[in-house]
Every structure is written in structure tokens, then in C-alpha cells.
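Model: You mentioned two targets. I'll fold them one after the other.
Researcher: Yes, keep them separate.
Model: Target one:
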Amino acid sequence: MPMSPRWRGLLLTAPALALVAFAGGALLLAGRGSLADGLGRGWSLSAYAGLLRDPAFADSLLLSLKIATLSTVASAVLALAVVGAVSGSRRGRAALETAARATLAVPHLLAAAAFALLLSGSGLISRLTHAAGWTDGPADFPALVAGSAPSAVLLAYVWKEAPFVAIMLLAAYTPAVRDLENAVRTLGAGRLRRLRHVTLPLLAPALTEACLLVFAFTFAAYEAPALLGATVPRALSVDAVELYRSVELDDRPAALALAVVIGLVIALVALAAAAISRRLLLARTGP
């Protein structure tokens, strides 16, 4: 007996629904822990009140939003530019896909450590600039690692996430998109006009989903901000992990409260992305 389309759809979405249920369950457990004492007993809002009274919380929240937003925008722009440049060449697409998949295989922790070795004051690039006579020593090299601006964190994230966005865009860049581009090109449309009226509208759903995933990951990730970021202020994820590892059990509700804040911010961004995707779909197919 053939399976109905409804049950087939539910079966295909079951893995994604299981992941969402797992994440939702973890967020509920974190919420319960944030409302208890260090031993998980009682009910109290003291952890959230403590966060609101702490000026470092606002600085950490702004830093995390800055890192996630800039990483997402830079990765999307770079991936869109590269995919657009190689879209007309089959070899170029294959080379880009191979390079992107190779970059994705590198763990984020290893990438962060490599950027620390490259960009720190005593790193490879600092030594090369000193050997070339451009700087007098490590003190003259810009503080890219652990500096006031999260430069090294952003560079590491763009290096890792732009290939992911590129792969998502390559999957959406079907022959139908190329045919439409060629059609408007024969009508005299320039590169920018084709990008605005054909390429971007057709790739927007895939670009929106990729940006959501990049934002969620870079907002909640720990490795790069911990290795490459400054100690004051620290990203929310770093604060949450450090508080959770504290020997003081009284710090645990605050750590879980930070985890809840991270989850809520990601949920809000996901809802916004879903609304944008729905509007884009309606614009293409009609109500």
C-alpha cells in the first residue's frame, strides 16, 4: 500500500523535528535550572535579576550580537560574490565546491588555533612584517587577537562560514537560474541589474536559511571567542561556559540564565527568518 504524501512528508521531516525537540528540551531544562539555586532546588528570579544589574551583561550581549551580525553579513556577501563570479564556469563551480568542502572539514577549534598562530603579536604574520622591516617588533603589530575589536574572531568565522554559505548558494543556483540570467542578458541587462532582479530574488530563500544558521552558530559558539577574543568584555557563550565551570554552585543559575538568553535570541532570529522566507515564497508563487 503506497504511503500518503502527508505521512511521507512527516517521515522526511522527522529528523529535523527530533533535533528541534531536543533543542527545545535542552532549553527548558536550562530555564528550570536558571530559576533554581545552585543545587537545582526552589524557584527564584535572582539569576536574571543579577544579570540585569551587571553592566558586563549588556556589553557581552552587544559583543555577541556584533560578532554574529558582522560574521553573517560578511560571509553572505563574500559567498554571493564568489558564487556569482564562477557561476558561468563548470570548472569554476567544481573548484569552488571542492575548496568549500575542504574548508568545512576543518574543525572550528583548529581554525581558531590556526588564526591565533597567524594573527597574534608573536604570530607568523607579525614575524614576517618585522622581518620585512615594516614593524619594529610585536608591540607595533595591530592587536588582532584579544584586542578591543573582535577582528581575529570575525576573520576566523568568515573563513569558516563563507564556504558554507557558498555551498548553500551553489545548490540553489540551478540551470533554470542561469537560463533566466542569460535571457535577461540578451535583453541588455547589465551585471548589477541581473543580480538585483534575477539572481538575488531566486537565491534569497537559500541565502536567508544559510544566514540564519551562520548567525545562530556564531552567536552561540564558544571556541573562537574564547581563544581569539578579549577577556573584557567576553562573548555571552564564553561567560556562560566559564560560569558553569565555576567551583561555586551559586554561579550555575546565572550560567543557565545566559544559556536561556542565547536560546531566546536565536529563536527570535529564527522566527524573523521564517517570516522573511514565507514572504519570499509568496512573492514567487503568489498567495
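Model: Target two:
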Amino acid sequence: MSYAYTLVVIVSVAAAGLFIRQQYRLRELRARVESASAELQRLQQSCALLAPAGVVERLFSDGPESIAEHKVFTAMFTDLVGYTALAERLDPKTLAGVLNGYFQLVSDSVAEHRGRVGTFLGDGILIFFGALEPNPWQCDDAVQAALAIRAGLERYNAELDRTGLPRIAIGVGVHRGPGLAGLIGSRDRREYTVVGPTLNLAARVQTLTREHGRDILLTESVREQLDPRFELTPMPAVPVKGIAEPVVTYAVLGRRDEQVRGLATR
């Protein structure tokens, strides 16, 4: 065997070994990339439970400080009527079950009409429409969601009747106005929400549902933007804490015809 032939064999074996090693490293690198991609996807899915998908994407690409902007949105505040009495009647496990059913029906109705549950505040729920992306029908969507909650509550109460549990009632306040939307909170804990006087007035209007004996009330700023086929009736103006002038509200009776029902699938 010549020296040259031996050298060629050695070089070929070395090259083959190097190729095999590179292929092994390539497969290992590909596996790591796939594992990291899967982990990132799981992390995004987990974060999506705490914030909208678009917000999560911006959080990963631009950082938390980028998610803050002034917007005009529609705020809805719901609250259980007579929660204290309900809590005194039911044991903790049963009470939690009743509350979870209420939270679920409200969340489903809101999601169906392009709204977003901001946070749960005890037995109250803060909801907003049009805060994530422009929505010229945000007032219609909010009132449609409120009507869906009313219908869902009727079904839920029928279910409670069958199991011998007390019925529940809620008050809903809806107001439209400006506010700050973004990731708000401390360095250790933040959540996507909206803040500002619009939320405060929506919460105040919700408390007026007891005074007026109505389940759904909205403000003039919502009525101005609302499809005229929604049926409303004006309530007397009443003073509201933190507001200079008495607040005029409107009770939502329903929707006038089947065409309005089509708004839900617009």
C-alpha cells in the first residue's frame, strides 16, 4: 500500500468522522431549538390566560414598557345583588360553585361579543370593549353582551332552582370614555387593564341599578353611540359621588327586532 493511498484513507476517515459529528451536533441543535420553541409556545399560552394574545406578542417582542396607550373604550361593571345574604346562606364549597357559574356565564357572554374581562373584584367583574384594538361598534357589543348576560342568568337561575339553590341577580353599569390601557402594576406583578375615571363612573352606574330597580343601566355617552334599535328608557338624573352634575342613565329593555340580533354576528 502506497503512502499516498494510506494518506487518502486517513483523510477520508477523518472527514467522515467530522461529518458524522457535525450531523450529530446539528440534530442536537435542532432538538434544542424545537424544545425552546415548544417551551416558548407553552409560555405564550400561559401568558394568554393573563393578558390578550396581541398584548402577549408585544410583551415578548418589545418589552412590558411598550404596552401603554390612551384609548377611548367602553367599560362594563357587573356585581352580584345581595351577595352578603347569599354568602351567609351557603357553605363555602356551594358558594364557590355558584360564584364560578356566574363568572363563567359572564365571561362567555363577554367573549362572544368581542369584550375582555379585565379582572374579578370580589363578586364584581370589570370588563372592557375596544381597549385592545379599534372597535367602532364597542357600545353595541357591550350592550349585546349585557343582554346575553341577562339571558344567561335566566338559564342559570333555572338550573339553581332545580338544585334547590337560591337564585342570584346582578347589576350592570356601562359607560364609554377615555382611559389608559396597558400593563399596570408593580415591578413584581402586572396585569393588562384599563384605568381612569371611565371605570369609576361605570362602577357608580352599576350601583344605581339598585336605586332605579333595573338590571342594566348605561350612560349618555353610550346611548349616543348605540344602534337605535336597542330599546332604552331614561331614568331620573341622580347625584353620583365624584361627579359634579347629576348623572342621567338609561335602562336597557332589549332589542327591537331580529335585525339587531344580527349585530352579534357582525
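Researcher: Noted. Anything on target two?
Model: The longest strand covers residues 169-185.
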